[in-house]
Amino acid sequence: MGQWKQKTLTRKNWMAFTGLFLCFFLVIHLLGNLQLMLPDEKAHLQFNAYSHLLSGNIIIKIISWVLYASIIAHVIYAVIITLTNKRSREVKYHYDKRGEVSKWYTRNMGLLGTIIFIFLVIHFRDFWYVYKFGSLPLDEQGHKDLYKLVVAVYSETWYVLVYVLCMVALCYHLLHGFFSAARTLGVYHPRYVQWIRVFGWIYSVGICAGFAWIPVYVHFLK
Amino acid sequence: MHIRMKIWRQESGQDTGKMLDYELADVNPDMSFLEMLDMLNEQLLEQGQRAIEFDHDCREGICGQCGMMINGRAHGPLKNTTTCQLHMRSFRDGDTIYIEPFRATAFPVKCDLKIDRSAFDRVIQAGGYISVNTGQAPEANSIPIGHPVAEAAFDAAACIGCGACVAVCKNSSAVLFTSAKVTHLVLLPQGEVEAQERVRHMVDQMDAEGFGHCSNTEACEAECPQQISVLHIARMNWEYNKAQLLKK
Ligand code: HEM
Ligand code: SF4
Ligand code: FES
Questions:
Q1: Name one Pfam family in it (chain B) (predicted).
Q2: Which residue's C-alpha comes closest to atom 1 of ligand 2?
Q3: Segment A165-204, tens digit of pLDDT
Q4: Integer CA distances (angstroms), A8 to B202, B207, B241, in order
Q5: What residues in B contact A192, CB-CB < 8 Å?
Q6: Distance B229 CA to ligand 2 centre (A)
């Protein structure tokens, strides 16, 4: 085996680092989005001002580059890992009931990840791209009016539906991912493993419920 | 009991192999699964057919030889049980039972249900030992080891190398097996000395044999006849990461 070839455990470490960074980013992103839930007028100006603030800040710039790199690396490693795993069993079982001894979402991280990836492409196209490169009208403070765009997009029922379903996929991905990352990085003490399970559960459900609630709220109440 | 079976038949490593149908009457529910296969083989021999080859040795759940997939599960429908400790009372009269070898690229099929598990031996050879000159048996109490530590090391050492963890894993990963040995030795003062080289070499060998990545699905622990804990995997990851960081 060539020296250049990365070890399975090293690849999993990168998977875990990039995954955990994305987990951290989701918290910031959710806190920002929660401003959409403020009373109409306040939400409008504050959300746009916040978006404007982010696009100018150098620290946010650095974080966003790490974010892009993390998404790309996470997906590339996901593909490499999945292909290696496929090669490790060339002849399949004729009759397979192994699913009885593990949870379905732990076995389908690639599928859940692919749903998230498709979601990310749509999400970047509709908001990130339009904000950065499109021509948005300005609000009364002279900031690009991202708020109006968000409300317009979330007024589409099918869009909200797809959004919520993707958050369910994200929730299952995180439910296993957060805990799995801790194991990959070597948390072996039973007490801390238990804490991480509980924290991971609260984190995953909290984050995804929060993200899913916003478009539903905007759709019906704005 | 009357039992129908679909069994994997393969002449040799080169042969492609296929599932064939068999039937057996008057099976005693208190027979072990292997005794049932013995009975089927006698019937085949009487009919002048080639017997079905399968691995077994102790028939008391301690050697780890009797691995096979039974109805899509490693070692059959019971959790944490070897095939020799599975009895026909776990099945119903008239059942059709699917029997296949453990499948993994690193475990090539040699004949019928028999596989080549020497990849495990090479993983052990890569570092699953301590380098000391053997001589007289040393005084047992010259190195004090606390009871909980001795017990934990022994729990890890209980792995019988059956390969069920690999067979049940969706990625054919061998981390439960490898981590059991890594943890067993790192917990003890004799093993600590070579801890870093050991974990690196064993992981390298595991990769070279073509086992997959661990996705932490924990199916391995559920099927392992020795109930080796998945926390050993976390311990191996920890030891591996430490060894990589401190590598000279
Ligand atoms: C917000 C987005 C995402 C977050 C927060 C996230 C988080 C995580 C975390 C924490 C892990 C656990 C790493 C480990 O087991 O050590 C993980 C695993 C995984 N992720 Fe993601 N992920 C995201 C998006 C994606 C995408 C877009 C894909 C694929 C296209 C993907 C594919 C995978 C796969 C296949 C695994 C399992 C690897 C394995 O089986 O060991 N993820 N993810
Ligand atoms: S860890 Fe368990 S399942 Fe795997 S080889 Fe050892 S005894 Fe068998
Ligand atoms: S024959 Fe030894 S464990 Fe089954």
A1: Fer2_3
A2: B177
A3: 999 999 999 999 999 999 999 999 999 999 999 999 999 9
A4: 12, 7, 12
A5: none
A6: 10
- Distance (Å) of CA A161 to CA A109, A204, A213, A219, B105: 22, 19, 11, 10, 42
CA of B8 to the centre of ligand 2 (A): 23
- Per-residue pLDDT tens digits for B58-84: 999 999 999 999 999 999 999 999 999
Domain span at residue A182 reads 2-89+101-221
Domain that holds residue B235: 117-246
- Domain holding A46: CATH number? 1.20.1300
Residues of chain A whose beta carbon is less than 8 angstroms from a beta carbon of chain B are 1, 5, 7-13, 81, 84-85, 87-98, 100-103, 106-107, 109, 176, 179-180, 182-188, 190, 193
For residue B136 the two structure tokens come to 């007289």
C-alpha to C-alpha distance for A178 and A15, rounded to whole angstroms = 11
The most distant pair of C-alpha atoms in chain A lies apart, rounded to whole Å, by: 66
Nearest CA to ligand 2 atom 8: B162
Write the DSSP assignment of B64-114 as a string of letters.
Answer: -----EETTEETSSSTT--GGG-BGGGS-TT-EEEEE----TTS-EEETTE
In a domain, A23, yes or no: yes
Does B139 lie in the same domain as B102?
no
Tens of pLDDT, residue by residue over B87-114, are: 999 999 999 999 999 999 999 999 999 9
Q: What is the pTM of this model?
A: 0.93
Residues B122 and B106 in one domain: no
Q: Of B50, B78, B111, which marks where a domain is finished?
A: B111
